[in-house]
């Protein structure tokens, strides 16, 4: 839980311009460095307030994908219990029965831990495959739970959402990497 | 990228306990989530206060995006209008001529209607709408179909009130907070609306199917008299929705009933109107009698 190693291991990302000419008396802002991942995932939960008033599930689970992307980019940043608070926040807006995201996000964090343990060195494609598996399971279980809550077996309508999620995952990954650069901007004067 | 070996933090007891506690909390999270999920499946209203608080917090975001939606659509429409201006001009001129004639007829019919009603002593219970508001969000990533309205109990919005747009019915209010309300859209599978065909009063009901389309079922058995383009309006039975609001248009007739599309696509509405419950005393009496009678017997079909 120490603040400094988390920042110091991530300073000066190899060979980037940002890292090349940073004065030695600068460091990232602690609140930005520690808060931005949480804030970005929580902001993605607010996607339900986007301009699209949908009459079908069309938007991929962006908040969950952002969580996975952060977990893959910075494996030790988010604590393993992060699914509990973040999932509760997502449940407030998603329209799913309350608790579904708490369960599924916590389970996903534990699953990522197992995957880390088993496949230590992973390439981008393998990360993508992991995301495919986790997001597919997430979408299926979520629509199952929604059907349970509606008391009516919902037809499987996650198809378009699923395809979009698969295609968008690298984009989310890239966006998270960009946010990570912002997170570590050396703005604080020591 | 390989994970750093931070799971073996050396001899520091504090760090070891920290990691252990992390896993305990994560597993407790799963278990607590399951419990909460069970509660909210049995009592869907159990956590409505949290959802209400959430939408209160996020309402400004929704307001901004609702404005963006309206102006964005306006912009696209403006650009599109340049492409077929001449063609449209001709069409509109023709339409206006037809509409003028219709308007005169309409006025005469209205006058006659008013006169006949007065003759029969019918008082038209056209209650004024509760409030006009904007849809500021929807559950676009979920299989359930809810939308968030930017008016709440502070504006007189209550549970059960129907919500309509200019084009037709949108849904009904299911949860309210002081400044926001949650609307169950008619495309949700949980929302069943009694309807009749506008042309001849053929009764039926409409149920959402969560994929943007809705299912139209008829109450009568036998041959299917539906055709593509038939318009269904609310029938007023059930007491919640006032009669005569367009709900669905038949798109694909099927063996029993039809697949329809919404008369008012929530994505294309800017303002919606919250209406008072059509026959509030009747609805309340119905709920009371249901409560007194207990749950209906389960029939397996």
Automatic annotation (TrEMBL), chain A:
This protein's UniProt keywords: Membrane, Transmembrane, Transmembrane helix
Residue spans crossing the bilayer: 52-73, 93-115, 127-150, 162-179
Protein name as annotated: Rod shape-determining protein MreD
UniProtKB/TrEMBL annotation, chain B:
The keyword Oxidoreductase is assigned to this record: no
Cellular component GO terms held in the UniProt record: plasma membrane
Domain spans labelled Rod shape-determining protein MreC beta-barrel core: 136-275
GO process terms (BP): regulation of cell shape
Highest taxon of the lineage: Bacteria
Transmembrane portions of the chain: 20-42
Family matches, as InterPro entries: Cell/Rod_1 (IPR042177), Cell/Rod_MreC_2 (IPR042175), MreC (IPR007221), MreC_beta-barrel_core (IPR055342)
Keyword Chaperone listed: no
Keyword entries, A-Z: Cell shape, Membrane, Transmembrane, Transmembrane helix
Family listed: Belongs to the MreC family.
Protein name: Cell shape-determining protein MreC
